[in-house]
Design goal:
single chain; about 350 residues; alpha+beta; six-stranded antiparallel β-sheet; five-stranded mixed β-sheet; 12 helices; 13 strands; about 25% strand
């Protein structure tokens, strides 16, 4: 961190000598400094052709760089990002430039306790004079809160799963044996219908148990767990389905990541069952360029992305992806289905 400070100070001195600092840019960035402080955001402007990175005072405060001028080269800013998340952040911003769309990405700073920063912006100007403008905000508290909430939800699911298995499930099994004893005594009144109903209850409890607990990932593996979710969802819709699972065994992935991916797929498939009326579902899971890539597509009725307020399912997906410092892009058109594209930076541990 000390070296970064020295580099930034040296860089700022170079800009001062070149007298390249655009006072108008800094005036605009700091014009609403009180508003920035009150809202906790810091603004920036990045001239891509000259690689001039202008930022407001509050921007420097958020990333904990003090006593420096408000202009430096962009690579100094990106050097503050944790290495395993840096390429992902740059890729999201590059996509913004090439597609001329807004971008939004969350990453961790290397220094201190890994403060979580949300970076949001959009391009201005033509291809040759492209400028990115936007803001950053410290979302550490929000992310930690979401992490606590998501972990709490999984713990509650596990608790309910155990109760269903240990209490309700065992009672149903006991009742089934009682009815079998009645059969031996030649008491057949309503036996077949009751026995069928109990079988249905037991199967439903098993399904609920698997649905509530992500421990199935530990038991049968991520690929099989996702395949089971996909099979059940396709059966509910009478839809075709396909799973492309292309995860290399060269790397180790944490069980927490696997369970979170399972939950993301589960949320997406639940949405598809409830809303899509799809006849085809496809899921792709692969690791590529030090990222976990998850794509879930359906050919359902879709929706207008510009007029749609995301429901709880999509909000939960976004929260889980943010928890993993990833990026989720939802693409949908009326009558043309929906695609959820997720990229999560991975700190690989090679076998």
């Amino acid at each position: 961190m000390l070296q970064v400070h020295k580099d930034l100070e040296s860089n700022s001195a170079q800009f001062s000598k070149q007298e390249s600092l655009d006072s108008n840019n800094l005036f605009q960035l700091n014009l609403n400094s009180k508003l920035e402080s009150a809202t906790g955001v810091g603004t920036f402007q990045w001239n891509l052709s000259e690689d001039n990175f202008f930022c407001s005072d509050n921007f420097l405060k958020i990333i904990e760089i003090e006593n420096l001028k408000n202009q430096f080269y962009s690579h100094h800013f990106f050097s503050l990002i944790k290495s395993e998340e840096r390429n992902h952040t740059l890729e999201v911003m590059h996509q913004c430039i090439t597609s001329n769309k807004e971008f939004d990405v969350t990453f961790s700073l290397k220094a201190g306790d890994g403060k979580m920063i949300r970076l949001h912006g959009f391009p201005e100007g033509d291809v040759t004079g492209k400028v990115l403008v936007g803001f950053i905000v410290d979302v550490s508290k929000e992310v930690n809160s979401d992490r606590f909430l998501l972990k709490g939800q999984d713990m509650e699911r596990k608790r309910i799963s155990m109760e269903l298995h240990d209490s309700v499930g065992q009672k149903c099994v006991a009742l089934k044996y009682m009815l079998a004893l009645r059969k031996l005594k030649n008491d057949f009144s309503d036996f077949d219908s009751i026995n069928t109903a109990i079988d249905e209850i037991i199967n439903e409890i098993r399904a609920i148990t698997h649905n509530l607990s992500s421990e199935i990932v530990s038991e049968i593996g991520l690929e099989n767990a996702i395949a089971q979710l996909l099979n059940d969802s396709a059966l509910a819709l009478n839809a075709k389905h396909e799973l492309d699972f292309l995860i290399s065994d060269r790397y180790e992935y944490s069980i927490e990541l696997k369970k979170m991916l399972y939950r993301i797929v589960q949320e997406a498939l639940t949405n598809i069952i409830k809303h899509s009326e799809a006849t085809s579902i496809r899921i792709t899971v692969k690791d590529q360029n030090r990222q976990m890539v998850l794509k879930i597509t359906d050919n359902g009725k879709g929706f207008d992305i510009n007029q749609y307020a995301p429901g709880i399912g999509l909000q939960n997906i976004q929260k889980r992806v943010s928890y993993l410092n990833g990026h989720a892009d939802i693409d949908s058109n009326v009558g043309l289905g929906t695609a959820i594209n997720i990229k999560i930076p991975i700190n690989h541990e090679e076998n």
